[in-house]
Amino acid sequence: MISVTILGAGNVATHLYNAFKQSSNTTVKQWFNRNINTIIDYKNDVDTIDSLEQLEDADIYILAVSDDAIAKLSQQLPFEDRLVVHTSGSVSVYDIDKKHRRGVLYPLQSISKDAKIDFADVPICIETIHKKSFPLLRELILSIGSPAHKINSDQRRVLHLAAVFVNNFTNQLYRIGHEITESEGAEFDMLKPLILETAKKIQDMSPYKAQTGPARRYDKKTLKKQIKSLDDNKHHQDIYKLLTASIQKTHGR
């Protein structure tokens, strides 16, 4: 049985807690957050604490906090030579204080607190400084049914950057699409099959081959007409022009 202590109470922390609680091979020893009220609803299921001095021995301490808080929190932990990992895609493993055995447990997924997560569909990237730490982290990840991937810092950095493009930026484009449809009373829900089909398509072909649309076809009349229709929103117009130029540069003509 692997004992885990979670520090932080955001989206990642909450979903990891639920996954570990459901696993027969892990136990959540404690859950720390400076604002105890954030996790008060879990007090009957786990030892919830708001002081680092209350931390007890555990096999792994998971810092599921904001990127900027990782270094300082790791320094404040009142022990040394224990396995301490963070969950960030962009923060260096060396940001964790060197008094600890350092590692990273990075779920490569968009995680919202109220959305259901099946960790069987969430690849988790593992990075460790000490080789002996890797098997334990791998066992922890496999215990919740996630695929475990050993990566280095550079690979994690580019995966996180790519994730910003394919997830965060794409979601912003969904928001713009929602705003455009609402402007004329059209139903955004009618676009959802298209969204799903695009995501499905790139399971079997490269994004390069999957590209369609007026920019890819160089439909000049359609491009001009759609740019003109965005005259009332220069921000959307600029994004349209930028992405059109990017597609045309990629496919060349």
Would you write up a description of this structure?
- With 253 residues, this protein is of the alpha/beta class.
- The protein has two domains: 2-151, 3-Layer(aba) Sandwich (Rossmann fold), CATH 3.40.50.720; 156-251, N-(1-d-carboxylethyl)-l-norvaline Dehydrogenase, domain 2.
- 42% of the residues lie in helices and 15% in strands.
- It contains nine helices and eight strands.
- It has helices at residues 11-22, 70-76, 134-143, 153-183, 192-201, 207-210, 214-217, 220-229, 234-251; strands at 2-7, 26-32, 47-49, 60-63, 83-86, 101-107, 124-128, 148-150.
- An eight-stranded mixed beta sheet has the order 3-2-1-4-5-6-7-8, with helices on both faces.
Annotation keywords:
Rossmann fold; 2 domains; 253 residues; eight-stranded mixed sheet; alpha/beta; 8 strands; N-(1-d-carboxylethyl)-l-norvaline Dehydrogenase, domain 2; elongated
